[in-house]
Write a structure and sequence with these properties.
The chain is α/β, with parallel strands linked by helices. It contains 13 helices and twelve strands. It folds into two domains: 3-112, Enolase-like, domain 1; 117-350, TIM Barrel (Alpha-Beta Barrel), CATH 3.20.20.
Length: 363
Amino acid sequence: MQIKEIESNWFELPVKIKIGAMPKFKITGTLLRLKTDEGIEGVAAGHFVNSDEACAIFIRRWKKLILKRDPYDIEAITQDLINYTYRILIGNPIGISLVNCALWDIIGKDLGKPVHQIIGTYQRKIKAYASMPYWMKPDETVKMTKTALDERNFKAIKIRLGQGLDKDKVVINALTDNFSPSELEVMVDVNSGYDLKTTLKLARILESHDHFKWLEEPVFSDEIDNLTELRSQVDISIAGGENNFGVHEFQTLLQKGAYDIIQPDATRSGGISIVKKIGSLAEAYGKLCIPHVFGTGLVQAANLQIIGSLPNCPYFEYGFYPDFILFSKAGSYQLDSEGYVKIPDGPGLSFDLDEEEIMKYIK
């Protein structure tokens, strides 16, 4: 079997989003299809970013590295993309990640098995937390949390803070006053919105409550020394890594003690192959590896497959946004009464793309 065609496009929804401290941007994505001479097609899609047209062009220019190659040579293809496009030309981490995910989709479809079974299944269901996409006022935070718990069976949520400590305190108090630690676990994401001094103050506020599981991306991910200093002074777990790529960057983060929880993304950090290695590296350091998952249904699908193989991953980040963003014929993943999502067990990435719907937004 050989790869005979690369089809790389991008899409744009008529919707703008502001994720916490990040600037407002339109919801876009890269859509990749790798087609083989045996009629099997591997599909992958990228996270919401502002450079998807550039990403699609990058991938098209990689024909010499991808075409006429056996998809089962996935490790060689991935390493060639890293060596020839990332290290030399600063490359495109999302593009490399999508090629790897699409190759795994082909392999799984060829074998008639989900990817997690091919790389080694550890778990067949995972506790999900509702990841709120934007800053919310206290009353909206309570309302959305009740919806997540009562209508969708979530037992955990992630909120966005970073508007200033005074506003953060009001949101924190609204949650802790209305929900007990036994009925709600809370993760906090600052989206790199604070400096070290402010983060220390926020961490100590969170530590005064039993609800909060971790503090995510409190400062810029490049501030490794500040992250290490932060970890040495607080008890709450510090999480991050969604903006990092490759085994070596995560090795540095673990060696430096920057995080308690690392959060690579199969569609950003190098693909399923690389995240599997990162997860094993974290396991060796005694750390959790809980992938970042925020994007279309194909982003969820790729990360769920790797999550199914990770022994040090107790949670799945489930974006709490409308189903139309997923482009899934099956709709959103359903939670059981305990707040768990089943790891999909269809072939490949186990995702049924709504072709008609996504083609409305292809550029």
